[in-house]
Structure to design on (324 residues):
């Protein structure tokens, strides 16, 4: 308390303190500390006895006055009032971390990037053409998720133009798509596929290769199947061009066979559809067998209740002329 008294005296020598003769005395009857300019300082308003903070402070001072002692264990730190012995305003990070269930494979720190955050939700996102770097990452993520838990499903979100760009230029070999497809077939986990935006070429194969009944598509996404394209030959000898062309035809037959297997269509039907770029919206993709459901709340019920175009024409009295 000696240190506290010393601090109080020091403060009194630096700051104006007015002592009122009585609670009802006028401002002219106040007595100021020595100094001319102190007398011109404004009068401190009287304290409100109903103030809740002052009431709390008076209660603490009455019951436990030692709690209001100025603690100066270190002279360089300002004094503080420790009214609570052990305050707990929120859980510490360590308590939050202990409250979450972790296994021996799960890191205790947040992953550094967004794909890793999605990976903890067992989500693999393909948002680029199937170039070697993308193939390497996707296969590694699939293998990692199987190692983490071979029984939980894996969610594969697809927004890719396959091994070509949107303008048709080849950016990767057809084996990039086949590599991801083979990895999906070898996994023990159930893989659920979702088309977001576009699933073109080899990406459409990955969409159709998901678990039967768990292949989804956003209502405004697009799917498209097309024949593989031969890369630019440049100054390649004629014999090498023929070898490349034969390889492209082999990849085309493999793609048709796999699409026929997963869509339930015949080899001839898929091959005929792939003669030219075959675009499908969500409804056509469901009819073709690429997906099973459309991810739109109430979409399936709306489509079931809606009449077919032929019924609309018949109810409207419109007759379709042959050849139109």
């Amino acid at each position: 308390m000696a240190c506290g008294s010393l601090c109080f005296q020091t403060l009194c020598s630096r700051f104006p303190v007015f002592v009122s003769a009585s609670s009802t005395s006028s401002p002219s009857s106040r007595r100021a500390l020595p100094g001319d300019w102190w007398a011109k300082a404004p009068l401190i308003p009287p304290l409100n006895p109903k103030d809740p903070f002052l009431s709390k402070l008076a209660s603490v001072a009455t019951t436990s006055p030692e709690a209001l002692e100025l603690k100066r264990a270190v002279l360089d730190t300002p004094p503080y009032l420790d009214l609570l012995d052990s305050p707990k305003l929120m859980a510490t990070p360590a308590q939050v971390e202990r409250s979450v269930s972790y296994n021996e494979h799960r890191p205790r720190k947040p992953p550094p990037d967004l794909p890793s955050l999605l990976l903890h939700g067992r989500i693999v996102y393909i948002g680029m053409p199937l170039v070697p770097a993308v193939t390497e990452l996707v296969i590694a993520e699939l293998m990692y998720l199987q190692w983490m838990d071979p029984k939980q499903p894996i969610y594969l979100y697809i927004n890719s133009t396959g091994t070509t760009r949107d303008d048709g230029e080849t950016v990767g070999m057809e084996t990039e798509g086949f590599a991801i497809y083979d990895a999906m077939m070898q996994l023990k986990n159930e893989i659920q596929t979702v088309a977001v935006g576009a699933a073109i070429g080899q990406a459409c194969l990955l969409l159709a290769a998901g678990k039967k009944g768990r292949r989804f598509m956003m209502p405004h996404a697009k799917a498209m199947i097309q024949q593989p394209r031969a890369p630019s030959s440049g100054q390649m000898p004629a014999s090498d061009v023929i070898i490349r062309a034969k390889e492209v035809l082999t990849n085309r037959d493999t793609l048709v066979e796999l699409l026929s297997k997963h869509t339930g269509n015949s080899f001839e039907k898929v091959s005929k559809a792939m003669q030219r770029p075959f675009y499908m919206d969500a409804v056509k993709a469901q009819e073709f067998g690429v997906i099973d459901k459309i991810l739109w709340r109430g979409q399936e019920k709306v489509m079931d209740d809606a009449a077919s175009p032929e019924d609309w024409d018949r109810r409207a009295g419109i007759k379709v002329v042959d050849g139109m």
Observations:
- Residues 1-30, 73-104 have pLDDT under 50 and may be disordered.
